[in-house]
Design a protein that fits this description.
This protein is of the alpha+beta class. It contains 15 helices and 8 strands.
Length: 453
């Protein structure tokens, strides 16, 4: 800020920068795209007519030629500049009544370039705590900026100055230093940080209200640690103590048991089919349907009947399966010959028939031998027509057929009785309608029950 002489025309600077990056000086701004407002002695901002008063200097720097009538009020004079594509610029100067000395200072027309005595100026610059209270409107020309960067390092010798510090410490090229990248540094396995400062405390002091990022560990903790541990229900049922009592019974070396039981257990579990779950889902309901049919006192019945069943099954010979496989087909072949209406005749006719047929002699092919060897057939040694009448012959033939059938019936009856005796021996006393299949099912159930126990 400078002090302006009241009612004296003065051109004041304007510096415009690009509103896109707020850094780059904006050039080529025409008067028509600029709006200016002024304030006298901090009064209300009023529109200012800019026509013919706007001039571009260069590199974002412009000037406005204010007339004496614009600067006619003592106090702070402010001007606000708005231009298309630029950040807004504000300037502030002070208008006073300093007379010609002010003009001499500003126009550099004083005897020695300054009106303030040299001794006073030296005191100003010698003050260690001197400071500029407002640096917002200070600008440098491009030549001034260039002069700073062109300053020779040999001239920067003042101890304690920023210039000498740069000269002393920037004593090598950056490319001559380490070529390691940040990735190289983090790849060092033994890297350590000598101090975290307040980092750890800052982490623990982070407010939960600020942990809102979805998917972050912070929000997870805030959402899920939503109650104190002491507010949860303690373990009051004794389960932990009971579990401990059980685990205390496990020998210290049980985990190290490398053979014997573990190997045997593994061998058994390896036999479990891969689709055991599917099998269980299918078979368990079927098994349950069967077990639901068991009477309520099944256990009592088993305790009573199993010993009796065992006593019966103990009578079954060890080779019962072989015997059954061998004899049952033969027995069935004989019983298939029995007519559906055949009844077991317990006495009388069978005995009489047997007494007569015992007189016949049979050859190895089970045929009746010749009449010479069977006197009962002697009357057949002549033509039937030379003997009895046809009616009598018919009667004789019918008698022979009857006798032949009797032979088969006797054989079948004997075989049937032998079968009945065999089955009765297998069944045992007290059994009525039990089949071999039913006996096998009972034995299988008994084996399963024994395995479960």
């Amino acid at each position: 800020m400078i002090i302006l002489d009241q009612s004296v025309a003065r051109a004041l600077p304007v510096f415009l920068i690009d509103s896109t990056d707020h850094v780059t000086p904006k050039t080529g701004i025409a008067e028509g795209s600029v709006t200016v407002k002024i304030s006298k002695n901090l009064g209300t901002l009023t529109a200012f007519t800019l026509t013919g008063l706007w001039t571009e200097i260069g590199q974002g720097l412009y000037k406005i030629a204010f007339a004496s009538g614009d600067l006619d009020t003592v106090g702070f004079f402010g001007y606000l500049v708005t231009a298309t594509g630029c950040d807004q610029f504000s300037g502030m100067q002070y208008v006073g009544t300093l007379g010609t000395n002010v003009d001499a200072i500003l126009d550099d027309t004083g005897t020695s370039g300054v009106v303030i005595p040299q001794a006073q100026a030296d005191k100003v610059w010698a003050t260690a705590t001197r400071a500029l209270t407002d640096k917002a409107d200070f600008t440098l020309s491009s030549a001034g900026i260039q002069a700073i960067w062109d300053k020779l390092t040999s001239a920067l010798t003042t101890v304690g100055s920023i210039g000498k510090l740069l000269v002393d410490d920037i004593n090598a090229t950056i490319s001559s230093r380490s070529s390691h990248t940040a990735a190289d540094v983090w790849a060092v396995a033994t890297r350590t940080l000598t101090s975290f400062g307040t980092l750890a405390q800052d982490i623990w002091d982070k407010l939960t209200s600020g942990l809102t990022t979805v998917g972050s560990i912070g929000k997870l903790l805030v959402d899920d640690i939503n109650a104190t541990i002491s507010s949860r229900a303690p373990e009051a049922g004794g389960n932990v103590a009971a579990i401990k009592a059980k685990t205390d019974l496990i020998g210290a070396s049980v985990a190290l048991e490398s053979g014997g039981n573990l190997a045997a257990v593994k061998a058994q579990t390896d036999l479990i089919p891969a689709d055991i779950t599917t099998q269980l889902d299918t078979n368990v309901p079927a098994i349950k349907a069967k077990t639901d049919l068991l009477p309520a006192d099944t256990a009592t019945q088993l305790d009573t009947n199993i010993p009796a069943i065992k006593a019966k099954t103990d009578l079954i010979p060890a080779d019962i399966v072989t015997q059954l496989d061998t004899n049952i087909p033969a027995v069935k072949a004989k019983t298939d010959l029995i007519g559906a209406s055949v009844a077991l005749e317990s006495g009388g006719n069978l005995a009489a028939i047997k007494a007569q047929t015992d007189k016949f002699l049979f050859d190895v092919s089970n045929f009746v031998k010749s009449t010479a060897q069977n006197s009962e057939l002697a009357h057949l040694d002549a033509d039937i027509s030379s003997r009895e009448t046809p009616a009598h012959v018919t009667a004789e033939v019918d008698d022979l057929i009857t006798r032949a059938k009797g032979l088969n019936e006797i054989y079948d009856s004997v075989a049937l009785r032998a079968l009945e005796a065999t089955l009765t021996a297998i069944k045992g006393v007290g059994w009525t309608n039990e089949t071999l299949k039913y006996i096998k099912e009972l034995v299988d159930a008994l084996q399963k029950a024994t395995f479960t126990l």
